[in-house]
């Protein structure tokens, strides 16, 4: 398994701690993926998915966004929290996150990963879960506006997407969105609004939109509060297929 390394992202707002995974079997330059946390922080689950991506051959960087809280909450910043122990705390922390600063930090993370020696220039994608799914979408829009677009976007049930749909025309990179049909947090009416916006009514062939029957919010999280095994396996297979097509390890 790929080792997890501490890494500092240098930004104009001061250093931001992050975690870095480099693929063990890489023999040349590889694409990079910036992973954005769920509301529980860089939990064991998110770290495991980062390791999964590194095993596929990607360099992976995950910024510790809750380190920006004032004051930062050490346990959440360093290790995340388990949902059954701290749902109220996590929701409170997520509400305190400075969204505009988080987007800027996401852009800094993309730049930092792109400058690492093992990473191919202009081959950095963004991927996020829940809170991070919406943030990845916003960062992709901001990166395109700044003239350094993301190579691809993967968004798992982005919880803030309903408030970000005006940014959809700016997200021109190949994208994959996954949702469950039984999401109590993002009901199907909103999911269909998201689909309409991000696909431009089906006109954007570079956007893939996948629904998973019977799955609720955060269905990929293995915690029993959320986990839907069938949907999790299917969505991860779709993610691997999408990344292999749009961000190939052996591509140019």
UniProtKB/TrEMBL annotation:
**Presence of keyword Glycoprotein:** no
Q: Would I find Transmembrane among this entry's keywords?
A: yes
Q: Which residues cross the membrane?
A: 124-144
Indicate the segments forming the Dienelactone hydrolase domain, all copies.
Answer: 20-245
What GO molecular function annotations does the UniProt record carry, in alphabetical order?
A: hydrolase activity
Keyword line: Hydrolase, Membrane, Transmembrane, Transmembrane helix
Q: Name one Pfam family in it.
A: DLH
Please state what the protein is called: Dienelactone hydrolase family protein
Q: Give the originating organism.
A: Ornithinimicrobium pratense
């Amino acid at each position: 398994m790929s080792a997890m390394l501490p890494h500092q992202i240098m930004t104009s707002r001061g250093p931001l701690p992050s975690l870095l995974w480099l693929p063990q079997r890489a023999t040349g330059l590889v694409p990079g993926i910036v992973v954005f946390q769920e509301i529980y922080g860089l939990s064991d689950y998110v770290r495991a998915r980062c390791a999964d991506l590194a095993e596929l051959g990607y360099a992976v960087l995950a910024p510790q966004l809750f380190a920006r809280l004032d004051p930062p909450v050490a346990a959440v910043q360093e290790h995340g929290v388990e949902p059954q122990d701290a749902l109220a705390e996590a929701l409170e922390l997520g509400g305190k996150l400075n969204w505009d600063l988080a987007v800027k930090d996401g852009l800094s993370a993309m730049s930092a990963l792109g400058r690492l020696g093992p990473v191919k220039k202009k081959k950095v994608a963004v991927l996020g879960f829940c809170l991070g799914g919406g943030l990845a979408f916003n960062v992709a829009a901001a990166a395109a506006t700044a003239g350094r677009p993301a190579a691809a976007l993967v968004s798992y049930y982005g919880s803030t997407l309903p408030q970000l749909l005006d940014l959809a025309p700016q997200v021109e990179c190949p994208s994959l969105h996954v949702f469950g049909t039984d999401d109590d947090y993002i009901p199907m009416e909103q999911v269909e609004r998201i689909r309409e916006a991000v696909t431009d009514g089906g006109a954007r062939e570079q956007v893939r939109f996948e629904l998973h029957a019977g799955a609720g919010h955060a269905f990929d999280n293995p915690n029993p509060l959320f986990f839907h095994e069938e949907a999790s396996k299917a969505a991860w297979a779709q993610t691997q297929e999408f990344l292999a097509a749009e961000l190939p390890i052996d591509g140019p």
